[in-house]
Amino acid sequence: MCELLAMSANVPTDICFSFTGLLQRGGATGPHKDGWGLVFYEANGVREFKDHLPSSESLIARFLQTYPIKSNTVVSHIRQANVGEVSLANTHPFQRELWGKPWTFAHNGQLKEFSQFELTRFRPVGSTDSEHLFCWLMGQLDEHFSCCPSWEEWVPFVHQCCLKIHEAGIANIILSNGDALFTFCSTKLSWITRRAPFGEAKLADTDVTIDFSNETSENDVVSVVATEPLTVDETWTKLEPGSCCVFVDGELVG
Q: Would you call 93 helix, strand, or coil by DSSP?
């Protein structure tokens, strides 16, 4: 299956270190060679980078390893295709506008009978079960709320929607509109929060080590979510199936 990566921080932060570990799994240390994507939230907009090539071979991915785009919220995905051809249209993360905000969605898993989730306003561009689920979820939000809700309002509703998807198959999900980072565990998802005193960390998939104390201030708070822990010398927390975690400005809030 695919792998997920996301970050929430209280100050604009780059994700070069974590992404360097993730992209190795896209065709080098892992089988997720069917495309990748990376979305950065900045002010009221987003920067999106996608490629249908393996992340371990993509020149765009190599560029992002060294170009420190800073963001408070980042969503990333590397794909191992099971539904839909290998193409840009089927490459995660997916985006839709709702209430004047760009919503970003990435999914790890598979649902054989995803047509049971009937679509309303939103329609897929590609042919994946993932994008179909995203369009269904956006439609549910649109119908349930008459205007833009706070994250405290939409998070419980989205959790209930994810539990319905979970009943139908495997669906590890990351969703954000820039205000909050929502993560749902169907089978496998882990997270870590880094804060002062910062120390060193070594990637599991390549021989790269960083000393975060040289890259951060004592007030920085950064949380990272991944399908599998990206480092070998830090303690990651595993989510239980059916549970969700919500991060705002780097802090776990629900």
A: coil
What is d(CA 252, CA 190) in angstroms, rounded to the nearest whole number?
A: 13
pLDDT in tens, 121-163: 999 999 999 999 999 999 999 999 988 999 999 999 999 999 9
Reduced to 3 states (helix: H, G, I; strand: E, B; else coil), residue 203 is: strand
Nearest to 5 by CA among 15, 207, 133: 15
Closest CA to 9 of 213, 155, 181: 181
* CATH number of the domain to which 79 belongs: 3.60.20.10
The DSSP line for 138-163 is HHHHHHH-SS---HHHHHHHHHHHHH
Question: Looking at the 3D structure of the chain, how many domains does it have?
Answer: 1
Note if 2 is an active site residue: yes
User: Residue 253 has which token pair?
Assistant: 């809030």
Q: 116: domain range?
A: 3-252
CA–CA gap between residue 254 and residue 180 (Å, rounded): 10
Task: Give the tens place of pLDDT for each residue, 193-236.
Answer: 999 998 899 998 888 899 898 888 899 999 999 999 999 999 99
Question: Does position 48 have pLDDT exceeding 80, yes or no?
Answer: yes
Contact 36, 90 (CB under 8 A): no
Chain position carrying tokens 């939103």: 122
The answer to whether the beta carbons of residues 124 and 135 sit under 8 Å apart is yes
pTM, rounded to two decimals: 0.94
What percentage of the chain exceeds 90 in pLDDT? 67
